[in-house]
Amino acid sequence: MTSLEELLPGTQRALSRRVALAQAEGRAPSLVAAVAREGRMVWTGSRSCGDGHVPDTDTQYRIGSITKTFTAVLVLRLRDEGLFALDDPLEKHLPGTGVGGVTVAQLLNHSAGLAAESPAPWWERTPGAVRPGLADVLGEGPVLHPAGRRHHYSNPGYTLLGSLVEAVRGVSWEEALRREVLEPLSMTRTSARPVAPYAEGWAVHPWADVMMPEPMEDLGLMAPAGQLWSTAADLCRFAVFLAEGDERVLSAASVEELRTPAVAPEPGQGDAGYGLGVQLARQKGRDLAGHTGSLPGFVACLWMSVEDDVAAVVLANATSFPGIGAVAADLVAIVAEAEPRIPESWRPLPEVDRTLLALTGPWYWGTQAVAVKLTAERGLELHPLRGGGRGSRFVVRADGEWTGLDGYYAGEVLRVVRRPDGSVSHLDLGSFVFTREPYGPVDAIPGGVDKEGWRGLGE
User: Fold this and answer.
1) Inter-helix orientation angle 9-26/324-338, to 10°
2) Cis amide prior to 127 (ω within 30 degrees)
3) C-alpha distances in angstroms, 301 versus 24, 40, 332, 395, 415?
4) Are 54 and 46 in contact (CB under 8 A)?
5) Segment 367-394, tens digit of pLDDT
6) Rounded CA gap, 151 and 170, in Å?
7) 318: Cβ–Cβ under 8 A, 6 or more apart, which residues?
8) Which pTM value belongs to this model?
């Protein structure tokens, strides 16, 4: 075991024990794990079945479908540049696929209705050269469900996204990824092909403690769905990016969009969900975002809790490994519960906008009391004062009105309605009226209010 001496001894021991238990019970030839907190890697641990061959955070493992998150980052970069919209049909930018009516967003969130896998032979164990064109990846009947109707995980869908990146950017998916994501984030040990030191992939017999090597094929056109090799250290850097954003790659708002639920989970998946290239889960009362991955000989998981500011990476070189997602989730929980995040110091806003300050405080939607709070950069928050209910954060628009960022009012417009003399009549939020008093003043309430006003039981 190794440690960066960033956590309390008791926390380190709990993490080390969880990693040791995972490698022993999962019967992995080797396993390496790392934890990031406050923007940096703070703990590492590893186990191996061979003496003197313990991996570290610089050892490459194949990360399988975690590659999809990288592809999604590239797609969002192109969107942010205005080269296409997520609602654009694929055909508009990548013609001739035969499935061009699906949208970019549907491919990202696996709701395009495409098959989960490419036609035989098994694509993960055969060279990409046997699928030289998109038609070979998609096959004769790639559409299984109506587009937009359900979440159905699709590896060919991410092949299409990789080809979209190439068509729009004019360079290979691999080159775009290296130049636009890996290099800015200093992920120098993440690559499309293994670079020593790297782990060999193994299959462990299910009923005997013996093993044999697995093939490590280049996936060709399928690369954007699962090709990458990476290290625990590099994936910690990627986790920090997915939590905070980096203007050199994607803004904080765009990485939040990646993590936002975009499609309902399939029945039986419980609290599992999917954003745009990012898996979502709720485990032990904690919201997690990241991705799992597997290819013959390897399994991988990256989970992060943005609220706790903790991320965990687990990599192993075994074809089958029970519950790698649960191991990563446990590492997050160990740190978050043993050493809870310390909040930043309160600081006043750098300046006061008295017009906005006058909007803060209690408002009423009919008889329901809500509060409006002023936040940084002319933002607003609205939340109920009693019990649960509808609340959202709002960001200011160029015209001085606000757009909802989350919750019930996501995307809705909040505006201040003023009287001819400049005084505030009410707030209009997606046509809902919020006034300073319950159902008042009369001129603000659609349909008016009873002319007798409020009354007691005997009046």
Assistant:
1) 170
2) no
3) 18, 18, 12, 33, 43
4) yes
5) 999 999 999 889 999 999 988 788 999 9
6) 30
7) 26, 27, 28, 29, 202, 203, 204, 297, 298, 299
8) 0.90
